[in-house]
Write a structure and sequence with these properties.
The complex is a heterodimer. By secondary structure, chain A is of the alpha+beta class. In chain A, about 40% of the residues lie in helices and about 15% in strands. Helix content of chain B is about 40%, strand content about 15%. The longest helix of chain B has about 35 residues, at about 570-605. The chains are: A alpha+beta, B alpha+beta.
Chain lengths: ~675, ~675
Amino acid sequence: MTILLRALMAIAAALALAPPALAQSAVDLGPRGAVHAAAGPRAGAAPMAPPTAAAGAHPLTAEDVSAWLDGFMPYALRRGNIAGAVVVVVKDGQLLVEKGYGVADVKTRALVDPETTLFRPGSVSKLFTWTAVMQQVEAGKIDLDRDVNAYLDFKIPPAFGKPITMRQLMTHSPGFSDAAKDLIASDPKRVRSLEASLKAAIPARIFPPGTTAAYSNYGAALAGYIVQRVSGEPFAQYVERQIFTPLGMARSTFAQPLPSGWSRDMSKGYQLASGPAQPFEFIAASPAGALTTTGADMARFMIAHLQDGAYQGGRILDAKTAELMHSPQFRPVPPLPAMALGFYQEPANGRRAIGHAGDTIAFHSDLHLFLDDHVGLFISMNSGGDAGAAHYLRGSLFQAFTDRYFPASELAQPTWKDAARDGRVLSGRYVSNRRSDSGWLRLAAYLLGQAKVTADKDGIVTVSAFRGPDAQPKHWREIGPFLYQEVGGKNRMAAVVRDGKVLWLAADDTPPVLALQPTPAWLSAAWNFPLFIATLAVLALTVVLWPLVAVVRWRYGKRFALAGRQAWLYRLTRAVCLLDLVFLLSWFGLLAVGTTHLELLSGASDGLLRLIQLVGLIGVVGVVVPLANAALILPDGQKSWWAKASSALIAVACVATVWFAFTQGLITPGLAY
Amino acid sequence: MSEFEKLVHGDETSPRRRTGGASWRKNVVFRSLTMVLAALCLSCGGAAARPVAGPALQIAPAAPSPPPSLTKADVDTWLDGLIPYALASGDIAGAVVVVVKDGQILTERGFGYDDMRTRRPVDPARTLFRPGSVAKLFTWTAVMQQVEAGKLDLDRDVNAYLDFKIPPREGKPITLRNLMTHTPGFEEQYKNTFGATAESLGPIGKYLAGNLPKRIYAPGEVPAYSNYGATLAGYIVQRVSGEPFNAYVERHIFQPLGMARSTFVQPLPSALAVDMSKGYVRASQPPKPFEFINVGPAGALSATGEDMARFMTAFLQAGQYGGARILAPQTVQDMWVQQTQFDPPIPALALGFYHEDRNGRRIVGHEGDTTPFHSDLHLMPDDHVGLFISLNSLGKEGAAGPIRQAFLRGFLNRYFPVPPTDAPTAATAQAHARLMAGHYWFSRRSDSNFLRILNLLGQAKVTANPDGTIQVSTLVDASRAPKIWREVAPFRWTDKIGSILVAVVKDGQVVNFVSDDLPPVLVFQPVPAWADAGWSLPLLLASIAVLLLTVLIWPLQALIRRRYGRRFDLAGRRATLYRATRVTAIVQLAALGAYVLIFALLSGGAVSFNDALDPVLIVAQALCVLGVLGVAVLAWNAYAVWASPGRSWWARASSLIILLAGVGFAWFVVTLRLANFSLAY
């Protein structure tokens, strides 16, 4: 099981060219309790500073923040098995502090240098794409509310009777299914152009546009492509000319591979600092996450946004455009933070704050802007670390930074009168709104990744997917109708409930692009998962006992008692079990290996996928054999109870395999996932 | 944490396992220089190959910041960065940190909570912690007071001060100096270290006379940490002073120093009990009850962080604090003189204090661990700086260990930095790595009883890596990955944060090795071939597997026979032997199972290492005796099978394999002392 979990956690990271999808990174495996990857990019901190430690605000000076970071970062990195990090803080249009911690290369012990060491901020790249879009909005070339098909040379097929608009792409509400295939590659030869990758696989649309903010790399890449089309410049070149150059970001690029001479400053990326370095990650959907940059360059970008587009006499955006971009546009789960245009609103002790997180497999980054305080914070780490350490670290860093420099007194709110009842309403199984719905990765979302929501008799709610920095699930107390506060902390959780039915459940320690959605009963892991394990057990036992029984027969000099049709049914039944077992286990093998061998999650393994599906298809069609076998044996008075019970169990396991083949998207006409 | 986990993770005294990383060294100068260079010549020189940078941003303050100085503001801010996240990520409820400098408290800080249920914040002046073995420093102080008074001689046979007798070993008596340097040569003594209740705490004299541990080394030769030895010293103070130990410390140390919120008394007086921090294994789990420590002088202290500041200041001021004097200046100096100098030249034990010299500074201190509480005290005599930290939870994956290391090493690297030394790898690296490879155990271990099981399961494995570096399975960094050690001088290795590992080699054989990641009160010794886990652990597992299969196949075979309508084809003596063999296997498995049960009970916290465990231990030992006698049955059976013609190859092979498993069982019963007819351990 451990391998499975590890696989799943890594897959979650692979899927996450930005916030790891909640449910996909959260695994629930029955009575031993849940095992989880990171709960989210800002997996919130437990109360970091008790009252005696943090009385009053500390002045945000270079001296104070330096000493504070020197306390925070080295131990946090070491404990998390993270090789290195860069942290920059800007204030009032100036760089306040830039710090490198740890190493850019474990082997050579090269230190991280905030000026020169290159990091991959992953989805923080999207902020550049959104900035480019807004430049084109200013130029009158893009209308935020027009059908995006107007700007494309291919067609996003209609769904739900509504077109997709640029505003929806920017708020992650076009309703696309998530897609992991071909997202990150290590072989440059396998990287398609932006245009080709967009046209090759348009993800399924699983929500009506504008109903929920389901994170979409595809949507961001599409926006970048639109910029490319309306400006007439290749995307990477456009950003270079219109954003990097005006801001003096000379050590930033969207180019892949890196321009020659840059590689020696490129930080190595790691899953664990104690493990091997990962290859450079090629991201075909480049506007969604291909940026390579330094901490110092990111300081320039933050300053430009904090100054509403103005930078050293020039401008990358008009003030009005910047203000629009920073303002709330879509609030999926009120009253939790909203999506601005591409930026997430962030909870910051009542301050107006926006930001964006970013994750590649190795690099984990976060950018925060305190708009009214003219303060920006950027961190990038070059390793994922132990059990999602990078996520907890950056979430805690942001919260502790906010509490130190922008503290707020906490009001003790009474528990809401209907807490016990509402706790029961929330209880159940959930999946993330960011999920791969159409392919075999449904396994990750539905079978392994469901979040479990429970409530005690007082209505204190626990959500297995929302965890603190010690990886313990947080507990939530209701303080208003379906509005919750973290027990012993400040984070909030809220649910959208209509007619007694939960539509969405979200917390503000994950970005507004993530929400949990109740799982329909027929897909609930509460019974599907035990059934799946039982199915595997029955299939495996059947396959193992087959030759064993033959050996024992031989030992006692007995002949095979069955003959004719019965004998053939006996053998074929076991053959079907073998196929079913191979079929089901193959997906998990793929999940496990795909995490360390990314090329497996690409078109390169389509042949393998089809082969597994072929095995499964034979197994699925072959379900008639164990059924016939059972039909023959069960009414037969001559047969032993053992023969009857086993034939019945085997038939059930084979039928269950058919059930999983179709409900988990294991046999599909297409190969999108 | 249960007693079993204590064995594994460290108990009240616990230098057994204290590994973990620390913050790493940042080259401040280098970094400032880079910044200046970047500002001065953005596109010249070494940067030529790089793209031209854009307009330079002002950094405020413009000048490169000087290395941080040890001020209240700086250390407070640094602690605000370090401790809260360390606690939150480590599932630790609370901590107290005190820094004294130049006779004053520079800062005293409480972090987190002393009670998770009420969320009462830790208050450094109010909240009591249990500093565990840091308490020994008070005992050693009391001993030195009695030396000053002329009532004790450090080099006299301790029997002169006792009302019971400790027999000599190899003709050598034990002295107080041996006790203070943990070299009396006692084996580890676990039983009754902790009492289940306040009532179970007897007079220390009675405990000492009744639990005298076996001597496994001649006095003065091998450092092997001993709580018994420290308790003995406390008892000697009690005897020569005529005052009960707790009252003595109260009158002669606490009162002169104004440590009004410190005591060795158990249970706590009610005035102090209300302010006692709860102790946790994990903050997210229920608290552990107050621990009653039978070896009081070795670790029963309860104290506030602020009181510990007074104690540190008294030592830093050569024994004097606020007009009172607890020791003469010369005595304080004497206590810090390195006493043991084992062959490996690393900082070693002074009189009770450990030398923890680092970054070119003289540092003396002591650590302390109870089940929940984990503490460290460090004095920098030449810099007039003292540090005390105590955590009230063990934390997730033993987080308390790495946090304490990060605190000390981060503090030193911040305020007393040294330039990194990058010594080249020694030419002997490959050969010496191969020489070091193998299994090791600690000098501090049990020897005469069933806790030898831990000596088998807990062996450290030294691996020679292909590149000539070595790793020790039990020396891990903060993220629990084994550290990589590079040889920089013959038999001297260093890791990437400057810790040291030194081996003593004589005649091409490793005698022992030590690391300054661990206190200098224990050494790694090569495991003799007969006890090497490399072969004996697989043998143990194989024996268990064979016995298990034998027992499981017995009824299964009967079922299959019935299914195929076959009769049992053995009769008479052969059938009896067949059955007796299987019954023997059951007895042997049950005997091993009884020991598994013992450790399960200990790890579940259901029993402690005290008399309550005796009944189970008696049953386990009896089963072991029966199981060993049963080997004769197995041998007879094998003989009978091989002697009678017509038995299948399967019957012959299995009778032999079962016999071998039985012999394996007997080997472990004997070598692990599983049936030693004694209830002491």
